[in-house]
Each structure stands twice: as structure tokens, then as C-alpha cells.
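agent: user wants the structure for N-alpha-acetyltransferase 40 from Phallusia mammillata. delegating to structure tool.
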Amino acid sequence: MIVLKGELWRKSAKAKDKKQKRKEESERTDRCWKLVDEADRVEDVLKDFVSFKKFTRNGLNLDLECFTSANLDPDILNWAFLLTKENMQNQYESNWGWNDKEKLKELKEDRIKFLVAFDENKKPVAFTSFRFDLDFGEPVVYCYEIQLINSVQRKGLGKFLIQILHLFAIRYQMHKVVATVLHTNTASRNFFIEKLKYTTDDTSPLDECYEIISKSVTQRN
Ligand SMILES: CC(=O)SCCNC(=O)CCNC(=O)[C@H](O)C(C)(C)COP(=O)(O)OP(=O)(O)OC[C@H]1O[C@@H](n2cnc3c(N)ncnc32)[C@H](O)[C@@H]1OP(=O)(O)O
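agent: tool returned. relaying C-alpha cells verbatim.
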């Protein structure tokens, strides 16, 4: 009888422990979603980073602006789509295939934000599209695309744009910046992995044509 009581007590303590852990996990998820939603509601995430609104290096003199998918000029959206197609179609075709409609839909998705670099003639020359998101329970800045026109590549602009995404991650308490790269895309792999020291993310699948890579920012919620 005494043994039975002890067993029952242990079982109920275990159940309580499990319930408490579930409660803590759910509170943590709520806190993280709150952070993501707060960041998402900010129309101009670049507004706090005045000194990052210009890129004047290696012969480039560019102005940077941030847009939500709702307030992005349709002409710039179309330009971003065509540039992505020009840069990526061959890569995609030898992997998961290129589809105009799918790519346009992805670029227009709710909650996508755009960081765009313009030259002195107000022409767009580079962009990164990104989203504040909860990815496998972690608040992240997910970099969907980073695309530069050929003439501005390899001048440090890509690195600058990704550094800004890291500043957004720190400012809005996201844990890391995440991106997807194709195994066959040497330029993007060299850029993210060799140059920026991104590593394979824990969530990256095995045996796929792509890899999920990430780089942490130091803080944790
Ligand atoms: C999440 C995604 O969107 S993945 C797809 C990335 N986009 C593309 O592949 C489209 C075409 N390329 C580009 O738009 C740009 O070149 C990017 C985004 C890859 C890099 O931006 P850049 O401004 O050119 O890079 P940045 O000057 O900051 O750094 C250059 C480094 O990136 C790597 N890199 C960039 N382009 C190449 C290339 N064609 N071949 C090999 N390595 C390259 C190298 O490590 C290079 O270092 P190095 O110049 O010292 O050799």
C-alpha cells in the first residue's frame, strides 16, 4: 500500500512536471510570436539605421530603402522578379525547376519586406527580400532572396545588405538570419559560407538539392 502511494505520487509529480514544461514552452512560443508580429508591423525597419541608408564604396554611390510588400512600387517588384529570373533561372532549372508564377507569388507574399539599393539615377540595382518569422520555434530573419545586377556584384554590397539584416535581427530580438542556398550555386555558397561564415542550420534537410544555412546573433529570449 505504501509502495503504491509512492508510485502514484511519482506519477502525478511527473505529470505535473510535463504540464509545467508544456505551459512554459507555449508561453515561450507566444513571446516569440509577439516579437515576430511587433517586428512585422514596422513599416520602415531601416528608419533606426540612418548611417546604413547609403553605400559609398568601390565606385558605388547607392541609397538604400526598405519597403513592405504592400507599399513596394509594382515596377520595382517587376524589376526584382526579372532580376531574380535572370540570375537564378538556370540554377533553378537544374534543381527544383523555374516557375514564373511561383516566384512572383513568393515575392508578393504578405509580410515580405524588401531592402532595395538605388543608384544616382534612382534605378534599383540590388535587393534582398526577407521576413521576420517563427522558424521551427525560433524567431528569425529569413532572407528569401539577395539579388544584385551584374555590374554591382563583388563590391561588398551583398555583404552590406546581409549585415543590415543582422542589425534588424538584433534590433527586433530575432535569434538568427536564415537563408536557403542551392548546392550547385557556387557564388551564393562562397558568399554566405566562405565570406559571411554561415553554417548548416539544424533544420536543414539531408539529401535535398538545397541547404538551409544560418548565422546566429548572440541574444536569446
Ligand atoms: C538566399 C539567396 O538568395 S541565394 C542566391 C544569391 N544570389 C545569387 O546567386 C545571384 C547572383 N549573385 C549576386 O547577386 C551576388 O553576387 C551575391 C548576392 C551572391 C553576393 O553579393 P556581392 O555583393 O557580389 O558579394 P560581396 O562583394 O559582398 O562578397 C563577395 C564574395 O561573395 C562570393 N562570390 C560572389 N559572387 C561570386 C561568384 N560569381 N563566384 C564565386 N564567388 C562569389 C565570394 O566569396 C566573394 O568574395 P571575393 O570577392 O573576395 O572573392
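agent: one observation worth passing along. The mean pLDDT is 94.
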